[in-house]
Amino acid sequence: MSEAGSAAPKGAAAPDSAGADPRDYERVLVIRLGALGDFVLSLGPMAAIRRFHGKARITLLTTPPFASLARASPYCDEVWFDERAPWWQPWRAAELRQRLRRGGFQRVYDLQTAGRTARYWRAMGRPEWSGHAAGASHAHRDPDRDSLHTVERQRAQLKLTGIEDVPAADLSWVKADVRRFGVKEPHVLLVPGGSAHRPKKRWPAEKYTALARIFVRLGIMPVLIGGEAESDVLGEVARHVPEGINLCGKTTFEEIVALARTALGAVGNDTGPMHLVAAAGAPSLVLFSSESDPDLCAPRPGAQGGKVAVMQKPDLVALSVAEVQSALPFALQVKR
């Protein structure tokens, strides 16, 4: 797999594919930007595209945070980055548009389906395009598309291109050694963070603390997962539950997957790492407030199975520890 900085094939617009069998195309582009959860939910569609275009060189256009996952995946041959250049650096956006125009792509799968990516279709000279751009060759213009879960929406989108079978996300290819963390069995993953600018999506830290103490009493190690921006909430839980392990800012996406594979289960807010955990097969309970709609974006089990349960209350402050404990999609065994 080539590095993101490798040179794009030189040439003009995408070659004329009229009358050709799309399974014989040589150059295919997949676009998936967005947040971590969006990226994980698109892994099944990426696998389907890879299988359908078995002869093609597939390029994935994504964002830098997903570099390692994207390069390690079996779904693309090279990775390009859209760094979402700010308005005061228009030359950077122009460079990306030029690179896309010169890419020679015979078909593009826009899994982002945003106004930004629709503009790329026009900038590229309107190649064969699967997305929502009006006038595109395979435009998914279902008036109900915005009421569909991401997975169902993308399956419907790909069906228009001849791709019928879209599997669940398969993370079996992810490799990571997590022995350095010293996590003991059995363990549960707790993901108490989330977007700082949407605090109502977070179940209160004191309730995660109370739940973690229950796990400790049962002989189950709580393992806290989150990014540096969530150090306040993870640190608060860790201070009151020293028997657990606080991995705030210490894990890669691959390491989260590895920890999830051996976890008894996981509890977390509606945030990106819970998508990785659920797709990796850990039985997961995901907590939603009125800030987001699980019918549109809830994590889904992966190809390895594992149950995903959802609890939603308009205000997560009103959600009790007892309610969460009773809804856990995994059995708690008392330590003997």
Description:
The structure is a single chain. With 336 residues, this protein is α/β, with parallel strands linked by helices. It folds into 2 domains: 22-159, Rossmann fold (3-Layer(aba) Sandwich); 179-326, Glycogen Phosphorylase B (Rossmann fold). It is 31% helix and 15% strand. The protein is built from 12 helices and 12 strands. The protein has helices at residues 36-41, 43-52, 67-72, 90-101, 115-123, 150-159, 205-217, 231-240, 253-261, 272-279, 294-297, 321-326, and strands at 27-31, 57-62, 78-81, 107-110, 128-131, 138-139, 187-191, 221-224, 245-246, 265-269, 284-288, 308-312. The strands form 2 sheets. A 6-stranded parallel beta sheet has the order 3-2-1-4-5-6, sandwiched between helices. The chain has a 6-stranded parallel beta sheet with strand order 9-8-7-10-11-12, sandwiched between helices. Helix 5 (115-123) links the parallel strand 4 (107-110) and strand 5. Helix 9 (253-261) packs across helix 10 (272-279). The longest helix is centred in the middle third of the chain and has 13 residues, at 205-217. The protein is elongated, with a radius of gyration of 21 Å.
